[in-house]
Amino acid sequence: xxxxxxxxxxxxxxxxxxxxxxxxxxxxxxxxxxxxxxxxxxxxxxxxxxxxxxxxxxxxxxxxxxxxxxxxxxxxxxxxxxxxxxxxxxxxxxxxxxxxxxxxxxxxxxxxxxxxxxxxxxxxxxxxxxxxxxxxxxxxxxxxxxxxxxxxxxxxxxxx
Amino acid sequence: xxxxxxxxxxxxxxxxxxxxxxxxxxxxxxxxxxxxxxxxxxxxxxxxxxxxxxxxxxxxxxxxxxxxxxxxxxxxxxxxxxxxxxxxxxxxxxxxxxxxxxxxxxxxxxxxxxxxxxxxxxxxxxxxxxxxxxxxxxxxxxxxxxxxxxxxxxxxxxxx
DNA sequence: CTTGAAAAATTTAAGAA
DNA sequence: TTCTTAAATTTTTCAAG
Lengths: 160, 160
Description:
2 copies of one chain form a homodimer.
Chain A: H1 6-17, H2 23-29, H3 34-46, E1 50-57, E2 66-74, H4 79-89, E3 95-101, E4 107-113, H5 116-129, E5 134-146, H6 153-157
Antiparallel strand pairs in A: 2-4, 2-5, 3-4
Helix pairs in contact in A: 2-3
Chain A binds a DNA duplex through helix 3.
């Protein structure tokens, strides 16, 4: 783990929300010269502190779609079945997120697909993956109240 | 809703994962001249098709933290209580995502905070918001199997 | 949409705090 | 080290076709 100083955190905070800011503007915002600002950004990139830059696309303007969140519970908690399920997930592009969790569920999935009938197909593939020893509950996203974008790094640093 | 042609979709697909690509390189990838490529990107931005550019920060390299997913069920499904809850969500930076869903739960929340004790504080604030007429179930994220980044636009267009 | 020139930004290198 | 300055390179931007 690299040590990050206050300036690095400022850079990260800005780039989280304005990833295409010019280096000159960024340098000014953090009170550095452009070259030393660039040096820090490059270091954050090569250290993996910044792992990627994403454009956020307003899907509604591209095409109709549905977003669902599915809770998944495996009947048998063997390593093999988990591995098999995770492997399957990675072959389905509509499954855009998968996390393993503690508690009554094993996974949360986020699935984005054109309509409910295509959702049902995906659901069937997921359920059949481990010989139907899997319970999936689906929740259609009706509204995105707060979207996952930037994280307030200061709320993490100072003990929330 | 703006009409998007094949080239726009290619641009969106690339920018989703490589938001800081230079316009020259982007132009080459989509077989356009730099100036007309830039024109398209600017149009996508001003139409809101591209809503933001985010740097993805590897939180583990910044500081210790926990990510939780919480399911929320309101006892009373009145508009006022929903509004109150949504308003509260927006005052808590550690709640980085909130969606309204159909099914047995009303909301899914994603919460990122320094540790479980700060999580408990946030939980208490959420529960007390509507006179404790709210049920929250917490799931600690143990592993991020597949992270939410780019969406395969072709899987949406062609009927999944 | 393309070309091509002007303006701006990025990147590199030399050297100071 | 990390920073700044300054020059060279590359990119962005805009006008004209």
